[in-house]
Amino acid sequence: MLHPITPAHYLILSAALLLIGTLGVLSRRNIIIILMSIELILNAVNINLITFSRLFDQVNGQVFAIFVITVAVAEAAVGLGILLAMFRNKETVQADEIDLLKW
Q1: What CATH number does the domain containing 61 carry?
Q2: pTM as predicted
Q3: What does the pLDDT look like over 42-67, one tens digit per residue?
């Protein structure tokens, strides 16, 4: 007997993605992994937005999720551009070795 997928399944998936992303941001030193973890967090938010949008039969959550995806793409492009510039300057991608803002 097949069980239908309920909104609770999507919320559990979203919570797992949020947990993995948060642990990645807090525990890693590599900036690329930190950026990927931020993307996981944003995808968890998108899953929540779509789930509640479908649950309440509203389109607002889906429109906002598209907006979040657009902002995530811009964040990734700008972040990778800054990362490339810092790698050319410092020759490292470790977050604790980059001290450009220190006096």
Answers
A1: 1.10.287.3510
A2: 0.87
A3: 999 999 999 999 999 999 999 999 99
